[in-house]
Write a structure and sequence with these properties.
There is one protein chain. By secondary structure, this protein is α/β, with parallel strands linked by helices. It is 43% helix and 13% strand. The protein folds into two domains: 216 residues, Rossmann fold (3-Layer(aba) Sandwich); 106 residues, UDP-galactose 4-epimerase, domain 1 (Alpha-Beta Complex), CATH 3.90.25. The strands form four sheets. It has a six-stranded parallel beta sheet, with helices on both faces. Strands 11-8-13 form a three-stranded mixed beta sheet. A two-stranded parallel ribbon has the order 6-9.
């Protein structure tokens, strides 16, 4: 199977308002691909099969990039498992099937590294899929993503389509979700350090403005971090989940987008790699991991917080280590450009820019 992409190809980017979809559109525009089709959730509910079917019948679509998903961090995944499995299964089933029904030959499905077993040899190779138990806190999301991979494989085998999947590691960058109850680790840590810095400066009005932009701060967290001006409140500090010992790999979202577009436009999925037969999905990452405590220390420096950091071991760490083996995509000629400190600095600058923009309104 060969994915045929040309400068006139039309792309439907599902989930274009999210961090991943927005980055992919930026990359497509950079490379001169201008025929990009998008729909907001208000315009097209991807969980509605009839609406998705009508959309594909009405539009001329050559390529689908399926970046739409319900996503969140440990708290959200563990608290709302039914929402995560239902919404993600519905979104991907509708888009993949209706793309096929409309004659779309090329589709790229965005998965997640959480598909792999909780305890897996490191670094994690693609063939480790379904070789062990999943991390319990995000099992529902992981099962939905595994179903998406297998659905693409099934359509390729039965119908000769060119539907492939990529498994990015933990992503961060512009357009990230900074809501403290359903964000991933890096945006949550960035926001906590920023809020603690404001509290240390006594700028509680700025904390209120931050809440207006990025969502309410739970009262228990405000108290634990000293984010209020109430008499007798504790000195400002940052409280982070877990022990800080868990190791994670982090990839800037623009690097992820570059990898996806590279695989589509350079025919990466149709080129053999020396390490084995052509896989139906590929890992995308940096090939390096870091302890949560270490990445928190970098963010602390980037933000400029001078106070205390406390880890709460009563909260879960999640998987002890998660580092992807990226040998296959490396063999195809792709490599990330951002180093972690550079990417974190850019992410914090984007965060501050949103606050400044709100202040000007």
């Amino acid at each position: 199977m060969v994915c045929c992409i040309n400068p006139q190809s039309s792309f439907f980017v599902a989930g274009h308002r999210g961090m991943v979809g927005a980055a992919i559109i930026r990359r497509l525009h950079q490379l001169g691909y201008g025929n990009i089709i998008t729909r907001t959730h208000a315009e097209l509910d991807l969980t509605d099969q009839q609406a998705v079917s009508a959309f594909f019948r009405a539009e001329k679509i050559d390529q689908v990039i399926l970046a739409a998903a319900k996503v969140g961090g440990i708290y959200a995944n563990n608290t709302y498992p039914a929402d995560f499995i239902y919404q993600n299964l519905m979104i991907q089933s509708n888009v993949i099937h209706e793309a096929f029904m409309a004659g779309v030959k090329n589709l790229l499905f965005l998965g997640s590294s959480c598909i792999y077993p909780k305890i897996a040899p490191q670094p994690i190779k693609e063939e480790y899929l379904l070789t062990g138990l999943l991390e319990s806190t995000n099992e529902a999301y992981a099962i939905a993503k595994i179903a998406g991979i297998k659905m693409c494989e099934a359509y390729n085998r039965q119908h000769g389509t060119c539907y492939f999947s990529v498994m990015p590691t933990n992503l961060y960058g512009p357009e990230d979700n900074f809501h403290l109850q359903n964000s991933h680790v890096i945006p949550a840590v960035i926001r906590k350090y920023h809020l603690a810095k404001l509290a240390l400066q006594g700028d509680f009005d700025a904390i209120q403005r931050d809440e207006a932009v990025f969502g309410q701060i739970p009262e228990a967290l405000k108290e634990a971090m000293g984010l209020t001006a109430a008499p007798g409140s504790r000195p400002p500090r940052v409280v982070l989940w877990g022990t800080g010992k868990a190791r994670r790999e982090f990839l800037h979202v623009d690097d992820m987008a570059a990898a996806c577009v590279f695989l589509l436009t350079a025919g990466g999925f149709s080129r053999p790699v020396e390490s084995g037969p052509q896989p139906s999905f590929l890992n995308i990452g940096t090939g390096q991991d870091i302890a949560i405590a270490e990445v928190a220390a970098i963010i602390r420096e980037v933000v400029g917080f001078a106070g205390e950091t406390v880890f709460n071991p009563e909260q879960p760490d999640g998987t002890p280590q998660k580092l992807l083996d990226t040998a296959r995509i490396t063999a195809l000629g792709w490599a990330p450009e951002y180093d972690l400190r550079q990417g974190l600095t850019q992410a914090y600058q984007w965060y501050c820019a949103q606050l400044s923009a709100q202040l000007r309104l």
